[in-house]
Amino acid sequence: MTNALIVIPARMQAQRLPGKPMLDIAGEPMIVHVWRRAMAAEVGRVVVATDTQEIVAAIRKAGGEAILTRADHVSGSDRVFEAVSKVDPDGERDIVINVQGDLPTLEPRLVRACLEPLQVKGVHIATIACEITNPEERTNPNVVKVVGTPIGPNRLRALYFTRATAPHGDGPLYHHIGMYAYRRNSLERFISLKPSTLELRERLEQLRAIEDGMRIDVGLVDTVPLGVDTPADLERARRELAVR
Hints:
By secondary structure, the protein is of the alpha/beta class. It folds into two domains: about 1-105, Spore Coat Polysaccharide Biosynthesis Protein SpsA, Chain A, CATH 3.90.550; about 105-225, Spore Coat Polysaccharide Biosynthesis Protein SpsA, Chain A. Helices cover about 30% and strands about 25% of the residues. It has nine helices and eleven strands. The protein has helices at about 30-40, 55-60, 75-85, 110-115, 135-140, 185-190, 195-200, 205-210, 230-240, and strands spanning about 5-10, 25, 30, 45-50, 65-70, 95-100, 125-130, 145-150, 155-160, 175-185, 215-220. Strands 5-4-1-6-10-7-11-9-8 form a nine-stranded mixed β-sheet, with helices on both faces. Strands 2-3 form a two-stranded antiparallel sheet. The longest helix is centred in the middle third of the chain and has 12 residues, at about 75-85. The radius of gyration is 17 Å and the shape is globular.
């Protein structure tokens, strides 16, 4: 599984934290921290895809690879697909991993864990999740839950993704971590689809794939990386990285 291409989409116009990728954490822009951790996963080439020259310059200064993409993309997946089409037009990389650009404390092993479900024939998309242990997260609509059927040790086949508390009844709930590994042709198929009914209702892009009959398998991991969406998240990331 070393023939992968990791793409990190990054845009400056985040609603709650404008300019988020370039915010300083421990002396470097946040996007540089994410790039370093993706590189440390050692699963393949890493490219940052952005709409801003400032981000390109920051990544190149750190020794990385970055590419300018259109500013009008509706989603990160669209930006990832444009970047893949530009940097690998001949399709030499048969796996594409979409790593969010706001995970500065990401553990590289989680990137590798996201790849593992693709070792099973018939899986179109792979992702990861962690069992919810904080009771408040069970009802928090900002914590996306994956509903799946167990298919092996630490592995689910996804049946649904939701912001609701699901499934009902006794048993674990799983916090979905928004990282995806696609087979190259599965990414092309996904991008060709129109937004689906449940995707628009839940505001969860991955439901488009589920509704089209694509198979998503989920690796279960033991930690959720800190996503930086608010000023409080930013301060937490600064504290965590300041002591490393």
